[in-house]
Structures are given as C-alpha cells and as structure tokens.
Request: fold
Amino acid sequence: MKKIFLTVLAGTLSFASCEKDDICDANTPTTPQLVIEFYDNSNPTVLKNVSDLKVTGEGANDVLSFTGVSKIKLPLKTTADITKYQFVINGSDVNTKNEDQIEFDYSRKDEYISRACGFKTLFTLDANTPITLTDGTANDGLWIKNTAVLTSNIINENETHVKIYF
Reply:
C-alpha cells in the first residue's frame, strides 16, 4: 500500500512541478516580420494594390506570391544584419515582368520571452541607409520609384514599417 501511495504521490508532484511557461502559448508575440505597404507614386497618400508580385529572399528557395493586396509582411534574417529580397512585379508574365532588389540593413537584439518560448529577435533599421534599392539581374529599370521608413524599430507587426511607392 505504501508503494502505491508513494507512486501516486510522486506522479502528482511531477505534474505539480510543471510551471505555466513550460508550454509556449500560441498568442505569445514572437520575432516580428517587416510590414510593408504599397502606395501610388503619382498620388503618395493613396494605397495601391500590387498584382502578381513575387518576392524571393536571397539564398531562399521559397517564392512568396501576393496579388490584390496593399500590405505584405516579410521576415528578416535573425542571424545577419542584412536581408536581401528580389521583388518581381508581373512575375508570371515573361514580357512585362520587372525585377528590383531591396536590401534591408538593420541591427538585432534578442529578447528573452520565457523558458518555453525562448527568445525573439527585435530589429532596428539602420539610421543612415536602412534600404538600398537596385535594379534586378535584368536591366529593365526600377519599377519601385521610392521607399520611406515609417518606423525604424521593428518590435511588432501592428504598424507599417516601410512604404514602397510604385
């Protein structure tokens, strides 16, 4: 009887020793993505939807596709201070596609969340050259006319960080 009691007591104590943060809540904020909004270059206060936009990160195989949206979210590298993306408008049409490269320069800071969730990385866009815009591999001219940084500190996804005018 004592052995059964001790076994039950040991099992109860092992469950009682679990702390709340042994499980990472799905609603816990993690590393934020860069939030970009697109605007009409000829009327800079008007949001403009992109159609057939393909975005590929340097060294990545995945192609992110967007159509009919004026806002996108892109991850920044947590192991480097630069992230480069290829932005291809009209990416499905060989005759009209246009590729631009955008480089985001930033600093990183890791912030502890909890034992179960680990760390998240917060970013601060470089004060001098946060964005470098160049033409893509084909010399087809820039389709992105201008960029503007609204918020240098990327600590959440609740606000727009960068505007792109085209």
In short: Helices lie at 2-16. The chain has one domain: 21-165. Confidence is low (pLDDT under 50) at residues 5-18. The two ends are 78 Å apart (CA to CA).
